[in-house]
Specification:
The chain is an alpha/beta fold and 198 residues long. It has one domain: Rossmann fold (3-Layer(aba) Sandwich). Helix content is 34%, strand content 15%. It contains six helices and six strands. A six-stranded mixed sheet has the order 3-2-4-1-5-6. The longest helix has 18 residues. The radius of gyration is 16 Å and the shape is globular. The protein starts with a strand and ends with a strand.
Length: 198
């Protein structure tokens, strides 16, 4: 299976706040325009399915990407954003000043977001989701999954046989495309990381 992972397009909060799973955060006009551009670049590909996180910004991105393909996006809970707990909705500037933020950067594997998930828990559920998709699709299928930066980085780290300690060294921009190819013969391989287009 060729898994095309796409981070959602920008919202008014991207790069300013840790939106997390908070509701009511749609794509910005800029994000909508950029998503249509990516959709156009994928329109002629043979894509078997489009999956999406249940969070609004991902659902909106997936709907745009799926429109030219004439497929209906399917919501998958395992692609949902990290549960950032008490940090959800806080400005990134305020978080950068916290001692706990330094702890996250120093030891991502051992860190739990206050009242939230660990990145290892995120990795585990994301990998389970990829394995379910592998059972659903053939090795020849190309599928798109619209998700979030940390979820996509967790999947990429796993494919590279790395722990989540490397997660902050992998950059995934809004609408960045990461491709993981899975095979019974060779296991997962990251063939593209954070490309603007395929």
């Amino acid at each position: 299976m060729r898994l095309v992972l796409i981070r959602h397009a920008v919202t008014a909060e991207t790069g300013k706040k840790l939106s997390g799973r908070l509701p009511g955060i749609p794509l910005s006009p800029e994000g909508i325009d950029a998503a249509w551009s990516v959709a156009a670049s994928l329109a002629n590909m043979d894509i078997a399915a489009v999956y999406t996180s249940p969070i609004q910004r991902c659902r909106e991105t997936a709907a745009i990407i799926a429109a030219p393909l004439q497929v209906k996006p399917r919501t998958v809970q395992g692609l949902v954003e990290v549960e950032y707990g008490a940090w959800s909705g806080r400005s990134l500037k305020s978080l950068y000043r916290l001692r706990l933020w330094k702890g996250l950067m120093a030891d991502p594997t051992g860190f739990r977001f206050p009242q939230g998930e660990t990145l290892e828990e995120v990795r585990a559920r994301a990998v389970r989701t990829v394995r379910r998709l592998e059972r659903t699709h053939s090795e020849e299928d190309t599928v798109v999954a619209v998700s979030h930066g940390d979820v996509i980085r967790s999947i990429a780290a796993h494919a590279l046989t790395q722990s989540v300690d490397v997660i902050h060294r992998l950059h995934v921009a809004p609408l960045g495309i990461t491709v993981v190819e899975t095979s019974d013969k060779s296991g997962p391989r990251v063939t593209i990381l954070n490309a603007p287009r395929l």
